[in-house]
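Page 47, continued from p. 46.
Same chain as before, 803 aa.
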Amino acid sequence: MIPSKSKFIKELAMLPELKGNVMSVVFGENPDLIISSKSDFFDNVKHYYEKCKSAKTEISLSATEEKNEIIEWLDKDLRIKSVRLKSVKGFPNSEIPYGIDFCDKDGTPTSMVILGGNATGKSSIYDALEYIYCNEIGEAQLRSFRENDPDRFNLFLEHFENGTDKTFCKVESVDKSFDIQNTPNIPDAVRSRINPDTHFISDYDVYENGQLNYQNGTDKSFHNKIAESIGLKGLLEFNKHLKAFIPYGRRKETSGINSAAKTIETQEKLIETTTKSISEKKGQIDGLEKNQKTNPEENDIKKTFELLSKVRQTNVSFSFEYIRIENSINEFKTAYNNFISKQIKSIGLNELQFLNLGLELLDKNEDCPFCENSKLNSSELKDQTNKRIEKIKELNSATQALNSTFKDLIEVLPYFVNQINNLKGTINRELSEIEENVEFNALSQTEVSFAERLSEILAKDLFVEINQLDSNANYLSNKNQYLFQLLENNKITISTLPESLKEINDFITKRSDILFSIDETIRAKTQSQGKSITEQIIELKKEISDFESQINQAKQIIQSEKKKKEEFEKERDLFNEIKESTKVYEKVVSQKVNEIVNTSFAPIKLVVEEVLEKYFEFDNRNLELIISKEPSEIDEETGEILSEIITAQIKPKNNSVKPQAVGKVLNTFHYRLFSTMVGIAIAIASRKNTGINMPLVLDDIFYASDFENRATVETFIEALFKMFKDFTPELDLQLILFTHDQLIFESTVNVLTEIDILNENKIAFGKLFPHPEAKELNGYKNLIYQYPSHFSKQSLNRIFETK
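Result:
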């Protein structure tokens, strides 16, 4: 029995020849890892590789993995007894489903040839049946319908925009019931063995099979077709992805390493040249400082420059906008006035609870529940109580708004005062440093005057009281009222705040101008003698400072790039390690997959070969088919055959001519027809191996294949029945043939009424109605007119002639 992909991969991990191979453990633990893209292979595998490498993992097979899912399906009869459908492609939604019965009067499934013109729903029925049995739709694939949408087939079957949940199709077979909403109805493991897609043949299959390559191991090869037919599709895909990854040359890490190394080299060169420049400039400074000590004037200039530099570094700023104070004050006043207007005699929460309780009691009493002697009736009492409750709620809301605006204002005002205090302190400290240097006299006078102005502002009642709020008993007893009154009493001070803020900003601008003027004055004094020693030293020190900043920045870049380089190197080494491990693993996978193909190939080879040769006989072609295995991969060092592919060739019988490629001997028409017969031969082999009896459903393939004449059609149909009878005599063939071509229909009638192995009860002929003409019958709307089984070929032909 062919193992599942999961079981196969886990068994591989336990082989002695793969002991120590980490990739075998990675896939053994994670058989469903996504490796379909070679570029994503490494990213999806590396985490598991490192984990398995650092831990000793034991791979084991559970009882559920050993269980063979196909056992319960063996020998099942899946021939169709009836189909019911609605809201499927061309069929609209309907209370009563549309349908076809494929049984005789005894309830036994029969073959049926159905003639249906365009727009009768022929393809809709076929597509629904194909989806139920195969979990795919050839027509959708042929048209590339929504290729990347996982729900593509459901959407393809949807009737306009009815919704896929409304799509209805149920199939009753002899042993199983199928529902399109439960698709896949046949488990994957079973589908891979019975190959339902080879039992459903449409224009898509004729085209796809016509692309088969009979001599190479491509995706669309005879080898793959055979391997898939024996349940190896998953393993073949897995092996293909392993092979694709091995030659993959990933550039991401190498590019990253090279880029980081180049950056490090550049930055190290920058540090080297900059360090040399710093050393030279420090030597120049040493020489200048020796000369400076012997020159008192230079000393004064040096001290002035140093003081100027220090003053410039002093942070004299004032970041505050008047709009902030204005908004806070206005919002507080509005909230306070609103609160005052809503104040009522209230005992707060207790009173609210009392009133709510009264409302509840009023529902049970006509009179006041407390005094029981009110002059108001129950309705008036409720109205008055509700009004009282609303007033309390309004007051509570006003209180919350007041508290919020109070909190904001009590933060803004002290912050403003602190800002002024800080600025005043900064000015006073600067005055103590510059007062003895005559070059700074203009700045000293300006700052003294400005410091006095700040003192005047801080001495105003509003700001004095703001500073003392926490010790003010009146404020502490009623904060909102006190603050409101304080604002009302200092309206003039508040109104002059914009002017005060402008004075502060003007001072900051004037100070900056004075400092610039001082700098110009000092430089003008030394201009006649060229640059002073102090100026030269200052410039050199600035250059050194800039160089040191560049070196620090370069060192940070180097550290960052070294870390990146290490990460890329680690990733590159891991990639190469995984690649080598995969190379060893893939060789064993290929060998084991080919062993399974070889073991399973023998029985299917006999059937396929014999079926196709019989077909050549029916088609009067004196050809011999040769199916064999050819080496596809050989070890260059040892000459060992690593893998083989199944090939097919043709040669004339009784002729010494060497076998030729199938595509060379057969013309286009016969090549496609032969390839279609390959699928049918595989279907026969699947029936023989599993005993599962599937219907054979054909949709317009004769028209699609452009059959040359009636004799070809008749030969093909006769060959079908005789081959199915010869190879699986115990399984009655159910052929369901849809055609829109009356000539094809008549040809089929001709051959089926003359085949000795068929009796009139095993084959039916019918014509498909457009769904609006369907008549209700036994709980469904019957879609076909079935010609009576006792009608002879001549009778049917006469019917067509009269029509």
